[in-house]
Amino acid sequence: MVPPDVQNLIRTCSIWRALEVVGDTPTLLILEASMLGDRRFDQFRRRTGLLKALLSDRLKRLVAAKVMEKRQYSVSPPRDEYVLIEKGRALYWTSLMLLRWEVMWGDGLDGGEGAGKMRVELTHKVCGKRFMPVPACGECHGDVDATLVEWCEGPGVGWMAPLYSRRRQQRDSSEGTALFESAAQLMGDRWASLIMRSIFTGITKFDDIRRDTAIATNILAERLNWLTAFGVIRQEQYEENPPRFEYKLRRKGIDYYPALLMLMQWGDKYYASPEGPPLLLTHRPCGHELDAIVVCSECRAPVEARDVTFAVEGAEAVEA
Question: CB count, 10 Å around CB of 179?
């Protein structure tokens, strides 16, 4: 709960700091395209369907955040490409968890995939088998989801001003060929992701979520309605007079947890306070502090980008 002397502040959160960098749909679509091998502006444009001005703006932001690097590949005429560097490559596990969630649940609001939906098949070179990425505990290699994790405040916990940069809501903003289109809509809405963070840590009532996130009442109500319609949470009445509700996770929401978990770990690595991470997690089945990894569904070995090949399929698949 929020201490009374820090109203209009939010709990320090590596997820929030990470979302300030990657938390909108166009940025996530660019990162997806980059991980599929695209490097040049026209390739990003074809893959994502983003308008040129929007694409240029997001590429500049990713370079400024040291997620990508702009490199010249032609002198005459001068032409540049955009390459993921260490900080960007460290988002690989987050991307795999978004892809996993998309495969499991990526049907948007209407329950249909659409004729042009892209698909990807991953092959793990270590075992030679096609696989699904699985979130696991780095200690016992057991599966991880929101129902198996306990949390407590870490050394870096505190309160900070919510420095919300102005961004237009970007649902359904792409006409391209995204692999994790629905997942990017969810993570790409920073308000929605911050609400999900609150619910994952046991904060489920409207007023408590508002205090935890400092989101304006009207925006919070709209996002809760959207998350309910999207199928990741459900509304449950706990008081009749006056009617009051709390918000609980549905299975679709529980399965989104690993994507936020990997993003939190990325934020802990690059944006945590000097004292340490704001949250400490424990994997309940083994009792150890959780350092989540991604493993192969077939051989359970940790998955690294260099050990994975992929084949993109679908009517609208774009050549890199």
Answer: 26
